Amino acid sequence: IPYTKYVSLPVGSFVKIKGTPARCFSTNPQLQVDFHTGTETCTDIAFHFRVYFDNCVVMNSRQRGNWGEEVKSTDKPFKDGQPFELGILVLSTEYQVPYTKYVSLSAGTFVKIKGTFVMPFNMNPELQVDFHTEAEGNTNIAFHFRVYCDYYVKMNSRQCGNWEEEVRTSVISFEDGQPFELGILVLSNEYQVIVNGCQCYTFPHRLDPASVKMVRVWRDVSLTSVTVT
């Protein structure tokens, strides 16, 4: 029986779904989330999100019984046999499913994120990158990097649910209206942050980077790629 919940979704709403695939990925289990405009299944669907766990993710909308243009991604952030946490953020222009990638970090690991901000800087778009110690969003964060494009950059860590001492800088190395390449290099004593080829920020280790299990990238960005080498 599909789970249903009656909601109101203003800008800034965040829908969090936790679960576990009922079957192994070789049998191609699926997950479907639909945001209906009415209380019946035949109503318009503002956002349709469907995961074919061993294949792809499909997103779409439906109006007056007709499906719109399908958006498909072959990224596979879910792990076979493992619990997942799916988040959907309601922005002014789009729905955003935070990008997650399961990782193993050590000294020398380089995380590269390419993308574009979805709005001009005078509207204060944000970019957030979190290095989680477990595969869920409410776990410890070894490194938190958040950009408020027209204001400042802040870095922090979170342990046992508590944020620690924040490091903040007013130096903004991103360019309004331009694609960006953000790199995070794991060194033995700190994270080194590189923006568009220039080393811009550093943050000392407060938690062992080897404890990091998941990288999450989200907020007001359209991602081109996320790689870990």
From TrEMBL:
SMART domains: Gal-bind_lectin, GLECT
Protein keywords: Lectin
Family matches, as Pfam families: Gal-bind_lectin (PF00337)
Coiled-coil region(s): none
Keyword Transferase set for record: no
UniProt key word Cytoplasm: no
All copies of domain Galectin, residue ranges: 1-229
GO molecular function list: carbohydrate binding
Domain of life: Eukaryota
Protein name per Swiss-Prot or TrEMBL: Galectin
Organism whose genome encodes this protein: Myotis davidii
